[in-house]
Amino acid sequence: MSPTYTAGSLVAARGREWVVLPESAADMLVLRPLGGSEDDIAAVFPAFEEVRAAEFAAPIPSDVGDQRSAGLLRTALRIGFRSGAGPFRSLASIAVEPRAYQLVPLLMALRQRTVRLLISDDVGIGKTIEAGLIAKELLAQGEATRLTVLCSPSLAEQWQSELREKFGIGAELVLASTVSRLERGLDLGQSLFDKHPYTIISTDFIKSTRHREDFVRHCPDLVIVDEAHSCVTADDAGQGTAAGTNQLRHELLRKVSADPDRHLLLLTATPHSGKESAFRNLLALVRPELATLDLESPAGRARLAEHFVARKRADVREYLTKEDGLADDSLVQRTAFPSDRWTKDEPYKLTPEYRALLDDAIAYARDRVAAAGEQGRREARIAWWSVIALLRSMVSSPAAAAQTLRTRSESATARTAQEADALGSPVAADSADNDRLEGMDVAPGAAESEEAGARLLELSERAAQLVGPAGDAKLKALTRHLKGLIADGYSPIVFCRYIPTAEYLVTQLEGRLGRRTKIAAVTGTLSPQQRLERVEQLAAESAGDAGVGGEASDAAARRVLIATDCLSEGVNLQHHFDAVVHYDLAWNPTRHDQREGRVDRYGQKRDQVRVVTMFGEDNGIDGKVLEVLFMKHRQIMKDLGISVSVPDETASGVTDAVVEWLLLHGRQGSQESLFDLDGHQESLDRIEREWNSAAEREKTSRSKYAQRAIHPEEVAREVAAIRAALGGAEEVRDFAVDALRDLDALVRDPGDGTGDFTAQAGGAPAGLRDALAATLGGRLVEEDRQIPFRTTPAIGRGEAALVRTDPAIGAIASYVLDSALDVNTPGPRPARRCGVVTTDAVTVRTTLLLVRYRFHLTLPSRTGERQLVAEDARLLAYEGMPSRARWLDEDATAALLAARATGNTHEQLVRNQIARDLGALPGLAGHLAAYGTRLAAELDVSHRRVRKANEEIVRGLRVVPQEPADVLGVYVYLPQQPAAASASTVSGVEA
User: Fold this and answer.
1) What is the helix (H) or strand (E) element at residue 30, kind and residue range?
2) Fewer CB near the last or first residue (10 Å), C or N of the chain?
C-alpha cells in the first residue's frame, strides 16, 4: 500500500524533489517542483512510478561562495515564490509594486463579504491599479471566479493590456468589432460570457437590448465599471442623446447590482460634481441603502466611508508620515507626481487674407441664421448648428475649413428642431462625457444641401489657398512654440479638434522642427489598438540612438505627436510625452483637463509638465471662450486644488452666447467683455451660480467623505509585512545586475536615473542563454544583441521588465537558485549555499541562516474552503557557537546582508567554521521549528486582521507549518582580527 503524504511535505520522484499539494489523493499525487511555479505542476501515480519521502539536503562545506551569496540566493528564492503565505494571495504573482496608498481600497474590499466599492481617486492616482489589485486578490482567494470590465470601447485595449501585463489576467475583448468572431466559437446554447471567464466589454455595445439580457443572465460574480459617472442619470435628466444613453447604461447597472452576492467596483474621478440626485443614484448601485443616508450626520458618513474612497494628489504625494498619525517617517512613501504645470496662453493674430476670409464667413453665417429664422424652428436649428460647425472649423485650420465648407451638415437631414439639436450638438460642441469622444473628430459640415452653394464653394477655395505658414499665422506660431519646447528637451503632444487639422499639421511640420524630430498623427481614423501602436511606434523611432533611457533631451529622441481628442481620455502617455499644446481651444475646460491628464499623472518623470494654450486674439471666438470659461475654471482649480468638471449645459450656454455675440457684432467688438453686453448678463450670471454650486459640492464632498475607513497605521503594518516577505523593486534590479555580471553577461548601466540597463548574454552559460531565448526570442540571444531591462512593466518585444514576475527575471533567478543547489553546474555560479566572511561589521562570530518554510493553509471563502501550500523565506542569525546561540532580532539579521569582507580568511579556517555550523544544524532544529510555529501564528493573526470585519470569512482559517524547514544557506561572519591572517586564502572570500 502506498504511503500517505501530507500537503506541504517533500517527496522525490522522476529524479527531482517535489512539494505535495492539497489536491492530492491516496492514488494520485499532485506535485509542484521544489522552488518551481504553478506552471510546472504534475500528477504522479504512486502505483506506477516510484515516489519516496525526501528531506532537503544540507549544504556541502566545500562549496563556498563570497560575501554576496546570501543576498543573491535569498532574492532568487523570493522571486521564485508565486504563492506567498501572507494574507494577500496575489501580490507575489503581479508585475507591479503597488504604492502604499493603493492598498487602501484592497484593505477595504477584504473586510466585506461582498465587495461593493466606489473608488473616486483623482485623475492619475491609479484607479486601474487599485481595481486590478482587488480583482486579482478576489480571484486568487476563490472569492470570485469570473470577471468583467465595462468601459468605453476606446479604453478596452488599454484595460486588456493593463490586466495582462500587470496582473496576469488574460481578458477577452467583447466589442462590436469582435463579437461575431467570438460567437462563431460557441457551442449550441452557450453564452460567450460563460465561455470566456474574463472579459472586457464596451458599455455602448452591451447596453443594447439583445446583448444586455444575455449579459445579465450570465453576468460574472465580479464586475468593474470604468467612468461610472457616465452610467447614471439625474432624476431630472432631459431627453437628449446623452441622457438617453446614460439611462440605458443605468438600467443595465441596476440589473447587474441587483444580485446582492455580486462584487461590484465603480471607478470615477468625478462622482459628485454633477447633480445631487445623480450622485445618490451612483451610491444606490453600490448599496441601495446608501442612497438614502443622511450624509450630514457622522453616522451616515461613517457608513458611506466603508464603501467610498476619494483622494486627491495632495493626500497621497507623501503617505505614511508622522502627519498621517504614525510614530515616525520610516515607512514614508513619496509618489512622483509632477509637482507643477507650467501653463501659458499664447495668442496669435490672423494674416490679412485669413481675416478677410473669416469676416466673409461670419457675414454668410449672419445672413443664413437670419434667413432661417423666418422659415421656422427646424430650419433655424439646422442653420444654427451649421454656422457653429463653420466657425469652429474656420478657426481650426484652412484644411478643416475647406472640408467643412464642402460637406453637408449632419443636422440637415433632421425632420424636427429637436432632431436637429440631437444631430448637431455632439458634432459641434465639446462634451465632458468621455464616451462621446469617439467619432467626434470628423470635420463637420456646413452646407445644408447635397450641393454646396456657390458662396460656400468660393469660401472653400479661398481657405484651401491659405495652407502653409505664409497664409496661416496659427501654424507659424505653433512651429515657434514647438521649437522652443524641443530645445528645452520636451516631447509635446499637440491636440486639435478635427482630423483634417491633424493631418494638415503633420504635413506642414515635417522638416520644420529639425531632421531628427519624428512626427506622427493619431486620429479617429485609426482603431483604438492602432492608436496605441502608432504611439509606441513613434516612441521607438524617435528613441533611435538615444540609448536605453530614451530621454527626450537627447537630440535623437525628439518626438512630436499630433492628436485629436480620441486620445484625450484614458490613454496613458506619460512615459513618452511631457508637454501639451492646445492647438484648438476646446469649448469646455474639462476637455483640456483630460488632454493634460494624459501626461500629468503618476509615472511622469518630469517634475514640471508644460502646457501651452493657443488662442486667436482677433478671431472673435477664442478670446471670449478663454475669458468666460477658462479663467473661471482655473480660479476654481487654484482655490480648491482640484479640477471641477464643467457641466455640458454650462459650457454650451457660454459658447452659444459667444456665437450670438459674434453674429451680432462681428470680430470688431472683440475687445469688449462678453459680460458687458446687453442681453447676456442674466444668462451668464446663472451659469456663474451653477458652476459655483458644482464647485462647492465638490469641495464639500472631498472633505466630508474623505477616506477614513482604513487608518494609515493599518496600511503601514501591511506594507512592512509585504516588504519583509517579497522584497521591493530595488532588490530585483540589484539582483539582476549582480547576477548577470557574475554570469559573464555584458551589462551596461547608463546611470541616467531611470534604472534601465542593457545586457548581452553571449558570454553567459548555455543554460541561462537557453532560458532567456525561450522568453525573449532566440535571435536576440543567439546574435548577442543588447537586451533592454526596464523599470516599467510596459515593455516591448525582446525587452525585460525589472519586476519579480517577468519571465526573463524568473529565468535568471531560477538559474541562480538551481546552480546554487547543484554543485556540478558548469560555469560561474553566483550564489553558493555556504560562505565565510571576515568583516568589521560584527564583533563576535555570527552565523546567518537562509531558511525556507512551507505552510498548509486552509482559507474559508464564500464558495467553500481552499487548501493551499505556501512558502516563505526567512533569515535567522545567531551570535557565538551553535551550542550557545544568542539569536538576533530581524533588523540585526537583515543588516548582515550588507556586510562586506574587510580581510582575508584562511582556507582551513573556512572549512573548519562551516563544518562546525553544518554539524550543529540538527541541534538547531528545535529553534527553527519553534520559529516556524511562531511565524504560522503571526500569519494567522495577519489573515484575521486583514479580514477582521468579516467573521464569516475567517471562521475555520488555519495556518499549519510543515516540518522540517529547509536550510538553504549557512553563512559565517568572523570579526576582523588586529593581526593579519595567513596569506593563504580561499578564492571567493577575499576582500
Assistant:
1) strand 29-33
2) N
- List the one residue out of 602, 526, 509 whose CA is nearest residue 564: 526
pLDDT tens, 379-407? 777 778 888 888 889 999 999 999 988 88
Q: What is the DSSP letter of 630?
A: I
Q: Under the phi-then-psi rule, with left for phi > 0, alpha for psi from -120 to 50, and beta for the rest, what region is 124?
A: left
Distance CA 523, CA 900 (A): 57
CB of 879 within 8 A of CB of 888? Answer: yes
For 342-380, give the DSSP string. EEEEEEE---HHHHHHHHHHHHHHHHHHHHHHTT-HHHH
- What torsion do the CA atoms of 566, 568, 571, 573 make, to the nearest 10 degrees? 120
How would residue 801 be classed by pLDDT, with cut points 50, 70 and 90? confident
CA distance 26 to 667: 89
pLDDT score of 555 more than 80:
no
The residue type found at 251 is: E
* SS3 assignment, position 65: strand
d(CA 622, CA 347): 9
- Residue 906 is classified by DSSP as B
**Scanning the structure block, which residue is given the C-alpha cell 543588447?**
786
Rounded to 5 degrees, what are φ and ψ at 34? Answer: -60, 120
The percent of the chain in helix, strand and coil, each rounded to the nearest 5, is 45, 15, 40
Report how far residue 264's alpha carbon sits from residue 267's, in angstroms, rounded to the nearest whole number: 10
By residue count, the chain amounts to 991
Question: The C-alpha cell of 970 is what?
Answer: 549557512
Task: Confirm if 444 and 406 have CB atoms less than 8 A apart.
Answer: no
- Whole-angstrom Cα distance, residue 164 to residue 553? 31
Asked if residues 462 and 357 have their Cβ atoms less than 8 Å apart, the reply is yes
d(CA 65, CA 970): 10
Nearest C-alpha neighbor of 175 from the set 194, 198, 196, 157: 157
- Is residue 187 within 8 A of residue 229, CB to CB? The reply is no
CA–CA gap between residue 792 and residue 755 (Å, rounded): 9
